């Protein structure tokens, strides 16, 4: 079953989800530690739905030491309670430094000036499973239409960073394409997000592929905002014969096979982007299976020194 990333996120945002617990060294701006190579499990979403244990075993056999989740429903990761899922990961020699769960407007109780229990539980479960970053990979359309409303919600981002910090974690945001398509008050939404989030509290996870069809170029953005990108979704893109991810004219492909200068991007972000988490994500596969694709991606990243 093929499920678009947009539909997956919108559906998944009705549930809640995860992140992590480790040392406070993650709150430094640069030199955040050794580089980590991981895989976003959305790349093998159907396989994880059918056989999560067998799929994790294959991922570990490829050499991946880190994964990033894209499934947290009813306080469970891929159907397993946080402590249980952490044991499963440990058994395969895998860590989960980050995970994707959408922070929605409904998770902030304006009357109480506090997060709802649901979001607090999301952060709690992320810490239990061993995450270090709680990444929100979406911004609802109603939050992108009004400048003052967006600024207000970005303050909620900062407050989520404060909440995560209490558990030794950091909140983060992951871009798609709309941040580069649309502007408010003559500013791109992505620039507004960077301007109004505290780098000490909110990490930026740049997806170098999502932005491409909307005109976003990773190297240009880095020049404007050095040191702001602790995490990256590593992708390559090709022209899609149909509508690709996020209704774009592009879709992802095996690293090095597309039109993005991926190695140049990851090398420069490693040097001056503050980036330590390099997470491969491939959402379209052309003539390969998802597992074949990410195995090839892993080999290519290793050949580049990651």
Salient structural properties:
306 residues; alpha/beta; TIM Barrel; two-stranded antiparallel sheet; globular
Structure, described:
- This protein has helices at residues 5-12, 45-50, 52-62, 82-91, 117-129, 147-165, 178-181, 189-196, 218-224, 262-272, 290-303, and strands spanning 36-40, 66-69, 72-73, 76-77, 95-100, 108-109, 114-115, 133-136, 170-174, 183-184, 187-188, 202-207, 231-234, 236-239, 250-253, 277-280.
- 47% of the residues are buried.
- It is α/β, with parallel strands linked by helices and 306 residues long.
- The chain is 36% helix and 19% strand.
- The chain contains 11 helices and 16 strands.
- An 8-stranded parallel barrel has the order 1-2-5-8-9-12-13-16, surrounded by 4 helices.
- It has one domain (5-303): TIM Barrel (Alpha-Beta Barrel).
Strand content: 15-25%
Main beta sheet: 8 strands, parallel, barrel
* Sequence stretches where pLDDT stays below 50 over 5 or more residues: 13-32
- Return the CATH topology: TIM Barrel
Order of helical and strand elements: HEHHEEEHEEEHEHEHEEHEHEEEHEH
